[in-house]
Amino acid sequence: MKDIGAVIVTHNSEGEVGACLASVAGRVEKVIVVDNASSDGTIEEVRNQSTATLIANDDNRGFAAAVNQGIRALDTPYILLLNPDAVLETGLGELVEACEEPAVGAAAGRLTGLNGQPQVGFSVRRFPSALTLCFEVLGLNRVWRRNPVNRRYRCLDFDLEHPAEVEQPAGAFLMLRREAWQGVEGLDEGFRPVWFEDVDLLKRMHDAGFGVRYRPGAVARHRGAHSVSKVPGKFREFYWYANLLRYSSKHFHSTGRLAVSAAVMAGCVLRMVHGVIGELNLDPVAVYGRVIGFACVRLVSGRKGEAGATPALARR
């Protein structure tokens, strides 16, 4: 479709990207694939798709930086962000119509799993509050999934069958209006390699006065957890906590930032003890000890809007 460019970020996505690219063919004007240093056959698979333009990075720059690269390589007014493990099942007309509304900065469609069922709790969420993140890091949302805080955050009360104005749809299937992306100066590349970069983008767009729409008539089938599964297991926890703390530093006032940092430290102590007992080794001490150290730094020095750089470990 004219006026739409698609950006697909890959990292060891050989098994998924072919179907994704086939599904967007003819539905967008141009496709940019930004590959973050894949070591499998992803690049060859993309090159077999004559309609896609490939940008191959020598190192893994992270999802946010790769998206910004892809958008800068396009000149279309609308940009579709699509994960490589997502396959379009409909056209994109409803998303374009939503983005054409005054002051709308983004629009999202309905994500379904491989079983065809809506991905409840993932497709659409509300912005996390400090209390939400405290519940997350303390494990309360996992053991008491339908508590009021988690129910609100994951929109477990939301009707995915009807159009609505929303706060935080998943970045796996999201159309951006270029004007809005430019207005907030793109994704924050300090979120590396994944997690919270799309939440941060939509929060900054919201604060700048751009609305976000959900249109269930646009559908993509989504395997899910593709990006997360490619993150080395021993670093996965650290990446998630580091980006959660970065988000907290950027968007919460001092009380909220302090509460989240304290909750991270408490939750990590519990997970460290549980891990040592369960695994009968000291590996959890290295992982959670580093997170606790980072949280301490944020606790004593973090200021709103001064999130600092992602720690060196998360850049590997």
Number of domains: 2
Number of DSSP strand runs: 11
Question: Which bin fits the share of residues in helices?
Answer: 40-55%
Mean pLDDT: 91
Largest sheet: 9 strands, mixed
Distance between the termini: 38 Å
Question: In CATH terms, what is the architecture of the largest domain?
Answer: Alpha-Beta Complex
Number of H- or I-type helical stretches: 13
Structural class: alpha/beta
CATH class of the largest domain: Alpha Beta
Within the CATH hierarchy, at the fold level, what is the topology of the largest domain?
Spore Coat Polysaccharide Biosynthesis Protein SpsA, Chain A
Overall spatial form: globular
Mind explaining what this structure looks like?
This protein is α/β, with parallel strands linked by helices and 316 residues long. It folds into 2 domains: 189 residues, Spore Coat Polysaccharide Biosynthesis Protein SpsA, Chain A; 85 residues, no CATH class. 43% of the residues lie in helices and 19% in strands. It contains 13 helices and 11 strands. Strands 1, 2, 3, 4, 5, 6, 8, 10 and 11 form a 9-stranded mixed beta sheet that branches. Strands 7-9 form a two-stranded antiparallel sheet. Helix 1 links the parallel strand 1 and strand 2. Helix 11 packs parallel to helix 13. The chain is globular. The C terminus is likely disordered.
Spell out the blueprint of helices and strands.
Elements: E1 4-10, H1 14-24, E2 30-36, H2 42-47, E3 52-57, H3 63-72, E4 78-82, E5 86-88, H4 93-99, E6 104-112, E7 124-125, H5 130-137, H6 140-143, H7 148-153, E8 164-165, E9 168-169, E10 173-177, H8 178-183, H9 197-207, E11 211-222, H10 226-229, H11 233-251, H12 254-279, H13 283-301
Parallel strand pairs: 1-2, 1-4, 2-3, 6-11
Antiparallel strand pairs: 4-10, 5-11, 6-10, 7-9, 8-11
